[in-house]
Amino acid sequence: MRKLFISCAALFLSCGASLFAQQTGVNTKNPQGAFHVDSKKNNSAVGTPTAAEVDDDLIVDNDGKVGVGILAPITRLHIKSATAGGIRIVDGRQGLGKLLVSDVSGVGTWVTPAVTRRAVKGVFPVPTTITNTSPFGGSPIYSGQSIVLGQGKWVVSAGITFESIPVSNTPQMGWVHAYLSTSTSAVQQNGFIHLGPAGNNTTYAGVLYGNFLTYEPAATKTSFISGNSLIEVPGTTPVTIYLLLEDFSYTYKTNAPQNYFYAVPVN
Fold it and tell me: Number of C-alpha atoms within 13 angstroms, CB side, residue 257?
């Protein structure tokens, strides 16, 4: 009879231990999930804790979902906070106005979205007039305009006002280009990439008007080149980009009211 009593008691203790192990509580004798931590020890001993009591709790339910401040998490990680700022991730790239985004593998980090970044205005030189009388084919002419852009994708917009140089009895008309370059003396792209269909051959272009016929009297005619170029600065170091003009006969006034040179972030 004694042996039977001992066996029954052992079976009862074993079953009780097994049942208790299914729900483990820390600072609470009333766990609501597989693992329940009541940080402030303020949960009621029986029944379901109130929302205010659960605010400091952490729970892992029977499906493996983790809840912080909530007893019934809906997703793998469910955070409920009674105050703003319920989540904080400090990875060295955090900052005011940044967004948390992921890469293709799901690894998240903070980035500055284009919508919160400011447009950048190009630098114009002190009002001056650039006169060039060379024929086609020479080295590009530096316009005196530049812009400094940081990492990301940008739409760079430029507008340039030209005046033809009057020449009697000599027809003048040409297709003129302007270039973005990291050099003031040659077209180079060191530190940025053109993303248009022409790649690094991308230019701004327009018709420079002048005398059309040999008998037309010499007269100054105004032309305007404008356009947009999508570029990317892949590195973290800001890049200074210069606006170069094709070698051709023209007069360029840097303070013409129509001129503009700026960049808008798009990524």
Answer: 0
| pLDDT, tens only, 189-217 | 999 999 999 999 999 998 888 766 666 67
Neighbours of 262 (CB within 10 A): 15
Model pTM score: 0.65
Q: Which amino acid is at 142?
A: Y
125: three-class secondary structure by DSSP: coil
Q: Render 7-69 in DSSP notation, one character per residue.
A: HHHHHHHHHHHHHHHTSEEES-SS--SSEEEETTS-S-SSSPPPHHHHTTEEEE-TTS-EEES
Closest CA to 248 of 199, 206, 219: 206
Q: What is the dihedral of CA 12, 13, 17, 19, to 10 degrees?
A: 10
Structure tokens at 89: 């991730």
Tell me if residue 199 falls in helix, strand or coil.
Answer: helix
- Is pLDDT at 1 greater than 50 in this prediction? no
CATH of domain 120-265: 2.60.120
Domain boundaries, the chain: 22-88, 120-265
Instruction: Name the token pair of 92.
Output: 């060295």
Q: To which residue do tokens 């890469």 refer?
A: 103
Burial status of residue 118 (CB atoms within 10 A of its CB: 0-12, 13-18, 19 or more):
exposed
Residue 112: pLDDT band (50, 70, 90) is confident
